[in-house]
Amino acid sequence: MITAIFSNRLEREVKEPDNEQYYKRGTLAVLGVLRDIERDATPIMISHARGQFISRILSVDKELLVIDYGSNDYDNQVTLEMHSLRVNAEMKGAKVEFSLEQLHEAHFGGLPAFSAPLPAELLQIQRREYFRISAPLDPIFYCHATWPEGGKARLRLQDISLGGVGVLVEGEMPENLPSGDIWRGMRLDMGEYGELQVDAQLLHVGARTTVSSKNETVSTPRLSFRFTSLGPAQERQLQQIIFALERVAREKAMRFR
User: The domain 133-255 is classified under which CATH number: 3.40.640.10, 3.40.50.410, 1.10.150.910, 2.40.10.220?
Assistant: First the structure.
C-alpha cells in the first residue's frame, strides 16, 4: 500500500548515510525519546516478516522496554516467534524508528505484555512534511465545515496526515476563497474510525484533474488544510486511524499480487 511504499521508504532512510545525524545512541538519549512516546501514549507500529500490528509502550527504563499485547491472540503468538522486528512511531513533528531482535512474554499490571532490552540506538527524524495517506473511496470520508462567508460545506476527504488534510469540493464553491484563513470547528467524519473536530488553516486552493470514462477531462476543486492545533488525544486517535488505513491498504495490495 501505500504501506509497502512507506515501509520501503523507511528502510531506505535507515540505510542512507545522510541519516547518521539523526541517530540517538546511548542509554540516556534512547530512554528520553521512548519516555516521550510512553508519556504521550503515542501509538507504535510493530512490523515483522509475518505481519504488523498497532500497540503502545507501557513502561520503559534503563534496562527494559515493555510493550502492550496486540488485540489478536494469533498475532501475539506469531510475534513472539519473530527474531527481527521493526518499531516505528509518528510523533508530532518527528518520526521515530528502531529495531528489536526479539520480544519476550511478560506481564504488566497483571496482564500479558511483551518485553525486550532497551534498544542501543534509534532513529529520530524531524519532519518537514508528514506522511500522508489517501482516504478510502468506499466508504467515503467527509469533512463538514462552514464556508468563510456562511453556509454549510460537505467536502470529501482525499488524504490525511498528522499535519492536515486535503479535501475535494463536490458542488458549488464560493469564489476567491482566501488562503490563510482559519476554519474553526471542522468535523472529520471517518466512518467506523470515528470523528474529529479540528481547527485548520486553508493553505492552498487548487484542483484535481482526472479523465472520465467518456475520455473527458474533469477538474475538481481541491483545498489543502493544515491543522492549527491537535490535542494529544486527537493526535493519538488520528495516528491510529492512519495506521489502520495503512494496514487495510497493505492487505488489499497483497491480495491482488
Answer: 2.40.10.220
Is residue 180 helix, strand or coil?
Answer: coil
CA distance 215 to 225: 31
Residue ranges per structural domain of the chain: 2-126, 133-255
The topology under which CATH files domain 2-126 is Pnp Oxidase; Chain A (2.30.110)
Between these two residues, 22 and 117, which has the higher pLDDT value? 117
Length of the chain: 257
Q: Give the residue-averaged pLDDT of 91-109.
A: 88
C-alpha cell, 20 = 547518521
CB 165 within 8 A of CB 144: no
Q: Which residue has the higher pLDDT, 141 or 150?
A: 141
Rounded to a whole number of angstroms, the distance between the first and last alpha carbons of the chain is 11
Contact present, 84 and 53 (Cβ < 8 Å): no
Helix (H, G, I), strand (E, B) or coil at 52: strand
> pLDDT tens digit string along 4-22?
333 444 444 444 445 676 7
Name the pTM for this structure.
Answer: 0.55
Q: What is the pLDDT of residues 120-130, one digit of tens each?
A: 999 887 665 56
pLDDT of residue 196: 92
DSSP 3-state of 130: coil
Integer Cα distance of 187 and 238 in angstroms: 13
119 and 16 in contact (C-beta within 8 Å)?
A: no
CA distance linking residue 64 with residue 99, whole number of Å: 14
